[in-house]
Write a structure and sequence with these properties.
Number of strands: 26
Strand content: 15-25%
Helix content: 40-55%
Structural class: alpha/beta
Distance between the termini: 60 Å
Radius of gyration: 49 Å
Length: about 700
Amino acid sequence: MSLMKLSWRNYPWVLRVLALLLILGVVAALRQFAPQVTEGTQDAAGDLAWRVAASSQTERRLVVVDIDEASLREVGPWPWPRATMAQLSEKLGQAGALVQAYDMVFPEPREGDELLREAWSKSPVVMAQLFSLDPRVDPREGELGAGLAQVGCPPFAPRSYGHYGNAAELRRAASSTGHITPRFESDGVVRKLPGLVCHQGQAYPSLALSAFWQAAQAGVTPGVSGQDWQAVTRSELGLAGWLGPHALLSSRSLPGLTVPLDAHGDLRVPYRVDRKALMSVSAADVLKDRADLSVLKGTIALVGATAFGLGDTVATPQAPVAAGFEVHAQMLAALLDHRIPFMPELAPSLEWLGMGLMAVGLLILAVRRRGVPAKRLPLAGLALALVCWLAASTLLVTADLWLPWASAALFAVLFSVVLATVEHALTRAQRERLSAHLGAYLPAPVAQRLMASDPSGSLQFERREISVMCADIRNFSAFAAHRSPEESAALLHAFCCIAVDVVEQHGGVVENVIGDSVVAVWNAYPECPDHPQRALAAAQEMLRATRSLLASGQPVSEHSVVQPLALGVGLESGTAIVGSFGPARRRAHAALGEPVSVASRIQAMTADLSIPILLGPRLAGGLGATAVEPLGDYLLEGLSKHYSLYAPQAWAELVPEDPQWLETAIAGERRADGDPWAEASDHHPLGLTSELRDA
């Protein structure tokens, strides 16, 4: 478990790459198995773009002749007699309509068909027909009009399973026909129309394409059929096909015009014209000569119905309930503008490329020096998703490009969240590691206080009554001179581990470790009322715990003068200041004051007095007279007054049984340090001259 924990901390890029691969996998799975999630989001955004950008300028190139509720009240219920429809057609022709396009089907023969046929023969007329794209619905009513002059069906055109055509008498009278087959999305909205529908090996164009082509052929003799639309697939386009749509429709009679189709043979309907901007006249007003028919001159007259009883309603991006002719009117306006939106064949690859660029950007934000904090990465992801949406909407409205963006936006949000989680985990792991290191180099309470505060360059301290212990390994310099650095370091490591454990077990804190010396304090951080007793107990335990370790310092050879190692401990209590000082970029923490100085110097006196533990007067006073043994007054090095020193009762029990051990250790320490009293120490029973004792 620890190895795993160490690995992910030490290899942050592994985590980042795994997070990237995870989110890419999620997005790929979503696109493969639940495409409606991203496509639905894109469609909703496209609908919003059309509503916001829809033009309110009146569209005058086509006029809707509306069979509305008022028309049904005045003229009669639907279906109207053929004579009435013939009268309507004649009035539209007299008004100068360029083309009459009927968004309705007349499948069954009726009385008066010859009158309607005669009226239609006087003007360019485009009749509607309807195909079934559902294999469960296969109607066979009426006759189909002429299809494209091109033989066969393009491979991308949808197949029809049935049709609603027109009565034979009427079909022969119409200039051309166009289907009004819609494409309903999963939410019921019509956003696409099949450009061509294939039925029994023949391709049939949509009503909008037929009406547009017929308007462009205004001088052609009515009754001519066989539009010359030609479909060109991507494979026939070469390299340009990767940058353009899946397929194109073109016409020899309309040079320079191309109509883009997607992989399903559909036209994407651009709803650029506001519903209220579509010019409309009531069919009843036309029949009753109440309308200003001059508005029809030179236009495409689209005959449709808004009357509720006719049931010709669909949902569009602009309205949940709209007349069916609105779809064809929008398509006609787009054809007249030569602006049909399409999705480039390269668009899915571009979306993946966008994901890669966003991943690089988020990674740079996360890892660069002074990078964006992890908690702000999700905001960056949301910003990227917003950019994707705005860019796609802008390109749709201004450049007629339908670009998939929802997957990229979802990737940006998910990856930014997961990356923020990874970066937060890495940062937390680094802080935990730093905290552990900080606690190892500083007393734990100090480390905790530092982590809870901001860096400061001011002096921070407090006065405390503390007990100080200074412990030092004697003869270590000589030991290190005859042993390898690795052995010396190993011994110091073992000694420090023992010293820290002993001090902490007795409620103290190791303040500093310098070479072979350890400084510990009590009552500097956690409250410790009995700190003198705890300090003494720790010193005694440390002597016992390190005895076998220090006894390992044996001569390397017969000619070596390496004396056994020994531990000397000095203890003192008193008032000191405990705190931090130095600039904010390099702070130091320490306990400063008289007890620290006295403890350090009486530790050095342990060799002179041949006693492993020496106590200062303040700490001895805190223990009581029965717990200590007075040793007299001494002038400590560097201090200007005499101090009474004490030894703990029964201190001799802490000295090894070999009577020569301590004496030899003292002599070795003095010789190694060039002590002038080394030779004179042999005259005192404890290795100490009377002159030195008096000093």
